[in-house]
Amino acid sequence: MSTSRKVLVSGAGGFIGHHLVSDLKAQGHWVRGVDLKHPEYAATEADEFSLLDLREIECCLRATRGIDTVFALAADMGGMGFISQNHSQIFYNNALINLHTLEAARRNGVERYLFSSSACIYPEFLQQDADVRPLREEDAYPAQPQDAYGWEKLMSERVALHYRDEHAIDMRIARFHNIYGPLGTWEGGREKAPAALCRKIAAAKATGNTEVEIWGDGEQTRSFCYIDDCVEGLRRLMDSNRSDPINLGQDRMVSINELADIIAAVAGVSIVKKHVAGPTGVRGRNSDNTLLREVLNWEPAISLEDGLARTYAWIESQAGKKTARTAD
Ligand code: NAD
């Protein structure tokens, strides 16, 4: 997006949306942010920020009015604890958000649209071993996502492709693989594994109780992508001409036990892992970045150690501030 555009970021009160707004402003674009809530941890840099419920078509029409580029990031989502227990709510809310945002974009003549999909669209039967083969874009079909969250994302990918084909909207579809970093949810039940582990390890450091709970045996594997890489990938994807889905993530796979060890090393504490029953998702998942490298001439570069050091420092300071507030 070399020339200045009028951009809508939906979900701009959330983690990725908030960071993306800052990046778009730094590039010189005019930005409207929309969400149910303001960003929790830092003020938005958007030129305009509206509190709107994007399940309503009227709100989507207001959000997309006068806009030429949409980054559709709004979703009712969270980590495994949330998405494994709220299937109907997630399907209902996210399907309405995505159907209405796309239709409103069409009616308002939006030229370019990015839909934020997820690695959760990939079939469960390809993700049954911890030592899994990395997932290629074409692995999505035959489809069998594990949860309603993934099924809805896959459905909305298809809706987006029909709008591209029938209404000439220039489409982009990014399948995110576990994005993490500062200014993301770190407590309350919607946090994902990196943030939850940073919080638990910060508590272990603060209290001296070195026991840290891990859901399952901790041998389930994932790849994790730092937020700055995600935002750069979004910028490059928008500038590319790739209109079919593409993975956006790291391809270094680690187990949850290894993730905890890296965070403990960053925090400078030794921990005792206590494996407890809990939702663990698929057994193994990794991103095949062959297409990403080809299409974007780039791939995420920030190491897990660097990204977790920045994330841990932020979560430790948030937890410290919270403790100080409750002690007042
Ligand atoms: P997030 O929860 O921090 O942000 C999503 C935002 O959408 C929230 O601020 C929420 O309030 C808003 N929202 C929910 N319902 C809404 C509604 N009815 N109207 C308006 N806004 C509404 O999540 P995130 O991590 O920033 O994720 C952004 C997008 O990327 C989502 O679509 C998510 O599904 C997708 N994604 C994220 C990851 C990840 O690892 N973070 C992985 C795969 C896909």
How would you describe this structure in keywords?
328 residues; alpha/beta; Rossmann fold; UDP-galactose 4-epimerase, domain 1; seven-stranded parallel β-sheet; two-stranded parallel ribbon; 41% helix; binds nicotinamide-adenine-dinucleotide
Your description of this structure?
With 328 residues, the chain is of the alpha/beta class. The chain has 2 domains: 6-179 and 227-248, 3-Layer(aba) Sandwich (Rossmann fold), CATH 3.40.50; 182-222 and 253-284 and 303-318, Alpha-Beta Complex (UDP-galactose 4-epimerase, domain 1). It has helices spanning 15-26, 57-64, 80-83, 87-107, 148-167, 193-207, 227-239, 256-267, 290-296, 304-327, and strands at residues 6-10, 30-35, 48-51, 69-72, 112-118, 170-176, 179-180, 211-215, 221-223, 225-226, 245-248, 253-255, 272-276. It has a 7-stranded parallel sheet, with helices on both faces. Strands 7-10 form a two-stranded parallel sheet. The protein is globular, with a radius of gyration of 19 Å. The mean pLDDT is 97. Nicotinamide-adenine-dinucleotide is lined by residues 11, 13-17, 35-37, 53-55, 73-77, 93, 97, 116, 118, 176, 178-179, 185.
CATH level 1 class label of the largest domain: Alpha Beta
Query: How many DSSP helices?
Result: 10
The set of bound ligands, ions and cofactors reads: nicotinamide-adenine-dinucleotide
Task: Let me know the average pLDDT.
Answer: 97
Question: Based on CA inertia axes, which overall geometry fits?
Answer: globular
Q: Low-confidence parts lasting 5 or more residues at pLDDT below 50? A: none
Q: Output the radius of gyration.
A: 19 Å
Biggest sheet: strand arrangement: 3-2-1-4-5-6-11
Q: Tell me what the CATH architecture of the largest domain is.
A: 3-Layer(aba) Sandwich
CATH superfamily of the largest domain: NAD(P)-binding Rossmann-like Domain
According to CATH, the fold-level topology of the largest domain is Rossmann fold
Strand content: 15-25%
Q: Output the helix-strand order.
A: EHEEHEHHEHEEHEEEHEEHEHH
